Amino acid sequence: MTTESKPRGPYAKSLEVRQRIIDASIEVFGATGYYGTTMKDIAAAVGISQMGLAHHFPSKEALLTATIEWRDKQSENFFTPAEYGLDSLLVYIAVVVEDQKQPGLVELQTILAGESTTASHPAHATHQARYRDLRLYLTRTFQALADQGDLVSALPSETLASTMIALSDGLHIQWLLDPDAVDVGAALRGFVLSVVATELPEPHLPTADR
């Protein structure tokens, strides 16, 4: 039997510092956006010098890119179902709710989604691809439910997919503004219950390793 070796020494320390920087960037970018954040702000949040920050990330754009890549990696394996249908829809809801355990991450997603509508924004292409992939995932999910006879809505699968994403984003904005007043998971379940003709178990994340 073999055991997986873990990074040691200077390399392990470097990885730890990089992760601390990314964790801090989630909070700082989430609070002030890309344009309102400076490398000095990030360095101060991490507790290192700007030179030390530049050693790991030479520019603010490079840091934003790494932060987005890290964020996407946390959930990308959830969105690769063995088959599409009710279970893949429940996973989507569970991921949206799971994000709320990291308010800074939700703030980052919300601010970048708005900022990146400008073509010159460094995250513009990334967010285009992210929303395109989410629409495809949900379109296939709703279409599978339609093919199984479990969809009662007359709306096209593509429209239901876009509506589900818009609802998720809008609910997160309201939740950030007033957490006690908005139950994101309940609202998403309510929407799904209005368009499917089947019992809806509790949303859940896959138990397999990501």
Give a quick summary of the entry:
By secondary structure, this protein is mainly α. It contains nine helices and no strands. The protein has helices spanning 9-32, 39-46, 50-56, 60-76, 86-98, 103-115, 124-147, 157-177, 184-195.
Based on the coordinates given, report the CATH architecture of the largest domain: Orthogonal Bundle
Radius of gyration: 19 Å
Give the structural class: mainly alpha
Strand content: under 5%
Quick one: how many beta strands?
0
Query: CATH superfamily assignment of the largest domain?
Result: Tetracycline Repressor, domain 2
- Distance separating the two termini: 22 Å
Helix content: 55-70%
- Overall 3D form: elongated
Low-confidence stretches: none
Q: What would the average pLDDT be, to the nearest integer?
A: 88
Number of continuous helical runs: 9
Q: Count the domains.
A: 2
Give the class-level CATH name of the largest domain: Mainly Alpha
State the CATH topology of the largest domain.
Tetracycline Repressor, domain 2
Largest sheet: none
SSE arrangement, N to C: HHHHHHHHH
